[in-house]
Amino acid sequence: MPQIQAICVVIAARNASATIGRAVASALAEPETAEVVVIDDGSTDATSTAAQTADDGSGRLRILRFEKNRGPAAARNAAIACSSSPFIAILDADDFFLPGRFGRLLAEDEWDFVADNIAFIEESRLTGAPPTIPEFDPQPRLIDLESFIEGNISRRGVRRGEIGFLKPLMRRAFLESNDLRYREDLRLGEDYELYARALAKGARYRLIHACGYCAVVRSDSLSGRHRTEDLRRLYEADRAILADSSLSGEMVAVIRRHERHVRAKHDLRRFLDLKNDEGAFAALRYALARPAALPAIAGGILADKTERFRRPPGIGAAGHLDSPGLRYLLSAIPVSAQR
Fold this sequence. Notes:
The protein is α/β, with parallel strands linked by helices and 339 residues long. It has two domains: 7-224, Spore Coat Polysaccharide Biosynthesis Protein SpsA, Chain A, CATH 3.90.550; 228-310, no CATH class. The chain has eleven helices and ten strands. The protein has helices at 20-28, 47-53, 72-81, 101-106, 145-150, 172-177, 190-200, 228-242, 249-278, 280-288, 294-310; strands at 7-13, 33-41, 61-66, 87-90, 96-97, 113-122, 141-143, 169-171, 205-217, 326-328. Strands 1, 2, 3, 4, 5, 6, 7, 8, 9 and 10 form a ten-stranded mixed sheet that branches. The radius of gyration is 21 Å and the shape is globular.
């Protein structure tokens, strides 16, 4: 089993002064944490100062700053490059770890990536003390490229739950031996793209349903501000993965499904951008010039108009309704229910 203090926690942060202290403190509280590297990605607020105030004096915190914003992928690559721990964990600046997370992950065997469940919690529920999260049955399993990508294709009328949101612990040796880093031109789906390439290269990706990561849902979160251009770059990233001649037929088929899924989102967003910026005629001209995009545009508009009639209730652990302001990415079985 890996020795204590073997993990580098990477936090890319931009204008996160209100939340970065909580994130840093949760990372330093884990005894397996050897390094916490914060990259202040061109913030215009006091992000670096707020991160420094969470330092516990152990010498494990390091804060670097980009003068200009370069995006989360570039920030994470910089943190990985300046760290040396054998394992790497990603923590978003809005989010935090629950106590004991790394111990549970490191207890698993035979993996290059290992991830746990995520609790999505409304910011209004955070009143100081960490939320009470049930102890879930780990139910460890390996996921392959096909199941990973299928889990990242969202569907209308189904609550969003793409497993690309997961924040796995990564083995540095696997990243190094396969020359894997984040694509710095991506500002949407950079995690998904890295994990997909790793799985295509044979990574063992283990998943447990125990919950150790809290993602805070905020109305002003930067992660929700994506441009139409970001969608284009993401489907082009899928096409770049498809250029790998070693992929099996099943791998090619599922990546193409994801590429079409993202491209449909792009076509709809581009249509709406044109309608808002240049008027309905310009949007219609764009759609008619791209017959292949017409079903995605028409279907997307219809779905948006009828979404309020189709919205399902949230389903949480063990199939029960989530509590107000709290839901889980993966369905799970509380250990107490088995006793």
